[in-house]
Specification:
Blueprint lengths: L9 H67 L8 E5 L5 H10 L6 H11 L8 E5 L5 H10 L5 E4 L6 H10 L3 E2 L15 E4 L3 E2 H20 L11 H14 L6 H14 L6 H10 L35 H8 L8 E4 L5 E4 L2 H18 L1
Parallel strand pairs: 4-6
Antiparallel strand pairs: 1-2, 3-5, 7-8
Helix pairs in contact: 2-3, 6-10, 7-8, 7-10, 8-10
């Protein structure tokens, strides 16, 4: 009929559909092949990564083993010291400074080894300031143990019996191992003579306080043992008399007997007439001791040829033995004593006997000349 489009041929439509289907199939096949290729590539990459990872792990393990062996070898290697060496570790010294100082005394190592060992010990390692002795042949591990344990070198100072407080202060001030300025001279008789141990750079004032605390505690214990009828009524009086006994005799066997003489004189109201008290008064006044027998009337608060009873303070720092002799004196009826010229004394009950002993002493001096 005129005016209508001609009908499409069925064979042409089928051909178009088949072409489309064929194109789709080819696209799917191509996409599938590409997906397979990508999967294979990923597998190959994963395999390479696994191989690299395994290799790196083995290499790291090998390096760690080598590093461990190296560190352990250095830690255990004996030092090059030929003698024991004293080394001071100061406050604030870090790992690098400590490592450097150990190297300087012959404990040879790389600073990295010290750092590794410090890290490995962790919180169990705490270097302490102090002065340490490192034995010859010591290795780095042992040296680190020494610093960690804090067993620093103990120094000592010996305070002899009978020194004055000023003399003790002079000793402490002159000791270069101590630090700090002494604020004041302590009270006479307040320090206990003995040997004191301390670490380098210990504070001088702290050492003085230790001496005072020791004296206070130990004298109090001895004073508590006194008899109820003791002539002296206070511990301070006992310290004063003990200081006189300390200066009068250095013989252990005489102290209790000398103490008994002074206590007997106190009971009778007699002056003690002790030469060391005259000397102390002269020293406090800045007067030179010259021909003491002519200075026995020197006016001072300590001169027991002038004053009655005990001096106002001790004249020295007495030791435990002299203090104990005063608290537990010998039982005697002696009131006098004088040198025997041999380091000891002769004792007398009466002044006549005393004068005879003085004559013997003078004769012994003459014979010695």
């Amino acid at each position: 009929m005129a005016g209508q489009e001609p009908e499409t041929s069925p064979s042409k439509d089928q051909a178009k559909d088949q072409a489309k289907d064929q194109a789709k199939g080819q696209a799917k096949a191509k996409a599938k092949d590409q997906a397979k290729g990508r999967a294979k590539s990923s597998i190959r990459s994963l395999r390479r990564a696994v191989r690299v990872s395994v290799f790196l792990t083995i290499a790291a393990g090998f390096i760690a083993v080598i590093l461990f062996i190296w560190v352990e070898t250095i830690l255990a290697r004996p030092s090059q010291q030929t003698i024991d060496i004293t080394l001071e570790i100061k406050r604030g010294d870090g790992r690098h400074v400590i490592s450097q100082r150990l190297n300087q005394i012959g404990i040879i190592h790389h600073p990295f080894v010290y750092q590794i060992e410090e890290w490995r010990r962790g919180n169990t390692y705490n270097p302490r300031a102090g002065e340490y002795i490192f034995p010859k042949g010591v290795n780095l591990a042992e040296a680190m143990d020494i610093i960690h344990n804090g067993k620093a070198v103990q120094h000592s100072i010996t305070i002899a019996e009978g020194l004055s407080a000023a003399q003790v202060v002079d000793l402490i001030r002159a000791d270069p191992r101590l630090d700090g300025e002494l604020s004041a001279i302590p009270d006479e008789g307040s320090l206990l003579p003995e040997t004191y141990f301390f670490l380098r750079h210990a504070d001088r004032n702290a050492l003085i306080k230790r001496m005072q605390a020791s004296r206070e505690i130990q004298f109090a214990e001895i004073w508590a043992e006194r008899h109820d009828d003791h002539v002296l009524t206070t511990i301070q009086d006992a310290v004063i008399l003990a200081s006189i006994v300390e200066k009068e005799t250095g013989r252990a066997g005489e102290r209790a007997l000398v103490a008994s003489v002074f206590l007997n004189r106190l009971k009778k109201g007699m002056r003690l007439q002790s030469d060391p008290t005259v000397i102390y008064g002269l020293e406090q006044a800045g007067v030179e001791v010259d021909q003491l027998h002519k200075q026995l009337k020197h006016d001072s608060a300590w001169n027991t040829y002038v004053i009655k009873g005990l001096p106002q303070t001790p004249i020295a720092n007495p030791g435990l033995a002299s203090f104990r002799a005063v608290v537990h004196p010998a039982i005697s009826d002696y009131y006098f004593f004088v040198s025997d010229g041999k380091g000891g004394h002769r004792f007398a009950k009466t002044y006549e006997g005393h004068k005879a002993n003085i004559a013997l002493w003078k004769n012994s001096k003459t014979n010695q000349q």
